[in-house]
Amino acid sequence: MKQNTSYRASLVKSANERLRKIEKVYNATNDSNVYVWLQKQAVEYPNTTGKFLGYLDEQGNKQLEYTDRIRFLNKSDFEKLTDNEKSQYNQMLDRFLESNTSTKIGIDEKYRKAMQSFNEENKYQFDNVEDYKKFWDTYNNMVESDQMSKLDSDTIWYAFENIDIPAMMNENKIEKALRYLSTGKWSELDKLSGSLKHQSVKGGTRPLSNS
Questions:
Q1: pTM above 0.90?
Q2: C-alpha to C-alpha distance for 10 and 6, rounded to whole angstroms
Q3: Structural contact between residues 7 and 93, judged by C-beta atoms closer than 8 angstroms
């Protein structure tokens, strides 16, 4: 099959505009699967597929080192590539543009499907994508920052069954509520919520077994 070694300026412009929006407008660098994939290329494969990407600093100036602002190379840099590299560049460009999660609509659809699947498989029902995403973003961020080492699966399901999660999120209390759950501070959790769906837990004993 013939290699595509042409620089497709209009497609590069479209791709870079999508990248800018993912970073700056939607703040969705962790939500877009294809953006995460591009980051991986840049970080793990800097001498191969990573060389097809340019990096920008806070002011939008070109950098040699990897930053969290990714762009496809401009024409002058593209022309420095070998024919094989140009072909790979175009394959990467096509993959990005064809990915659903290179657009806001595609990212939203990803979460809509995830929420629908969750609701079909569990008793707890999220009413909207925003609440679904906010809850799991909060949970995952806390796990990654090692604040939730004591939060086991029993406790997270206890949260779904007993806490008014939408109310907690509306008042930006969900992170604190999960932290109280992870450390068994039930009285503090009662004070925070004001209205758990169950009777207040007394004595600080975790209501669910870890076994």
A1: no
A2: 12
A3: no
